[in-house]
Write a structure and sequence with these properties.
alpha/beta, 17% helix, Rossmann fold, 25 strands, seven-stranded mixed beta sheet, 2 domains, 8 helices, eight-stranded mixed beta sheet, globular
């Protein structure tokens, strides 16, 4: 299996010049004020710059659209009439707050700066930039209508970021929909053919030396097909997308539209757009040819993209209460109703979950039946406004494999916990941590499958 990422950079030569945070650091942006700002990102010790603009702040909340620039671009593309400025102006006129950031990597003065775009530090820089805008504009921004639009290289990165950020409670917000404009020189899946030297410099190692570094930066993993000539570096082809190990599983919830070049000379690039679309079948995703003859910001009309980000595309508790799905964790943090603590930090955590359509307040958590290497130490189940599970009612948890279950949201100790048909023993089989309002259900090495019933009061949960 190889990780793949949208990068139309076969001719790019990176010359990273780190822009370290100045001392003293710049002051935070003023409240609800449009402009250009630079912030420090503690996770990398580097600076991040962005532009933010929008309509007069007289009502609100307004939707936020985050723009991701392409190769040889920067946050200044948003104010460049030959690049993203017409798109940004159209979004502003349509009532959107518009933000464009460097993502830790931008091109100015003939050199590359902070060569991180697409890597792990890109995630941290994008988080920091979005959080800065949300902190500054507060209730003027509708946190259930945060959208991502990526051009070229940025199209792959908007997919990667969306696949990694699935927590509606997080300070950085969560995308309600995404548009990836691939057009003529790129696709949501980019083979390593021709770009190995660049990627080695970007990620600090080869794929063979550290595949997890590549996999966690990618929204899509492709399956190896031995003997095909498309990817000589790994003797693999882009002929398939496979479910196991693919971060694309995390995009099932997300309305996603991919545009590719109408006259794309490489049919493999068009095929990969449709493979992603086919892989995400059943969710509101689709790939179509755009009308533009060139690979430029102007090749997709702003009205087409903004029309896709309809007001109905919101991320509410109702839209998150899906019946189930697969999640892939590149780090130990929350996604939807769950958080996975991984055993090995250098691998993905994998989880299958299912909310019962027939039994109220019942959830199935499953690892081994679906994945050969789940890499899960424990799973935290959250009971809050975004969860379809109610902390007041009887909770039923079914889980396969030997994994500890944490249930976060119990303000008081449950009256009784059942393991299978029998009351479970407090202190050994289960416990309640008052400081974190967490119920802990311990696994049993003798039982591959465990059924729990949690009763808030005595006599509940037959």
């Amino acid at each position: 299996m190889i990780a793949v990422l949208l990068l139309s950079l076969a001719q790019v030569q990176a010359h990273p010049i780190a822009h370290r945070c100045p001392f003293p650091p710049p002051p935070p942006p003023p409240p609800a004020t449009y402009g250009e700002y630079t912030i420090c990102v503690p996770a990398t010790g580097k600076s991040e710059s962005y532009h933010v603009d929008g309509p007069p702040l007289v009502a609100g909340p307004y939707p936020l659209i985050v723009l991701f620039h392409g190769a040889y671009g920067s946050h200044d593309d948003m104010v460049d009439p030959a690049k993203a400025a017409p798109f940004a102006q159209a979004a502003k006129s349509a009532g959107y707050v518009v933000m464009m950031h460097d993502g830790g990597w931008h091109y100015s003065g003939g050199v590359w700066h902070n060569s991180t775009y697409g890597s792990e530090s890109f995630q941290r820089h994008t988080e920091a930039a979005i959080k800065s805008v949300l902190d500054s504009f507060g209730t003027y921004v509708d946190r259930e209508r945060i959208y991502g639009y990526g051009f070229s290289m940025g199209g792959g990165n908007v997919l990667s970021y969306a696949a990694r950020h699935l927590d509606p409670n997080a300070a950085h917000g969560m995308f309600a929909a995404v548009v990836d404009q691939s057009s003529q020189a790129s696709t949501p899946m980019w083979s390593f053919n021709g770009g190995a030297t660049f990627l080695t410099g970007l990620y600090g190692s080869t794929y063979a030396a550290n595949p997890f570094v590549y996999r966690r930066a990618s929204a899509i993993d492709s399956g190896c097909v031995l003997g095909t000539p498309n990817c000589p570096l790994f003797q693999c082809g882009l002929s398939t997308v496979i479910a196991e190990g693919s971060m694309a599983q995390n995009l099932f919830h997300l309305p996603l539209h991919t545009f590719y070049g109408q006259c794309e000379p490489d049919p493999l690039l068009v095929e990969s757009c449709h493979l992603v679309d086919l892989f995400l079948a059943g969710s509101p995703n689709y790939a179509t040819a755009d009308s533009g003859p060139v690979h430029a910001w102007s090749s997709v009309a702003p009205a087409t993209v903004l029309g896709f980000f309809a007001p109905t595309k919101t991320l509410t508790a109702a839209t998150l209460a899906a019946l189930g799905g697969d999640l892939f964790f590149a780090e130990d943090k929350r996604a939807f109703h769950f958080q996975v603590k991984r055993v090995n930090a250098n691998d993905l955590g994998r989880l299958h979950w299912q909310i019962s359509p027939t039994t109220p307040n019942a959830v199935l958590i499953e690892m081994g039946n679906h994945f050969t290497s789940p890499n899960v130490e424990y799973v935290t189940v959250f009971l809050d406004a975004y969860s379809p599970l109610d902390p007041v009612g009887c909770l039923y948890v079914y889980h396969h494999d030997y994994v500890q279950i944490h249930v976060k949201g119990y303000t008081a100790q449950p009256a009784q916990v059942f393991k299978g048909p029998n009351p479970a023993t407090f202190g050994t089989q289960w416990t309640w941590i008052s400081s974190t309002q967490t119920l802990v259900l311990n696994y049993d090495l003798a039982a591959h499958t465990t059924t729990w019933r949690v009763a808030p009061t005595l006599g509940d949960c037959p």
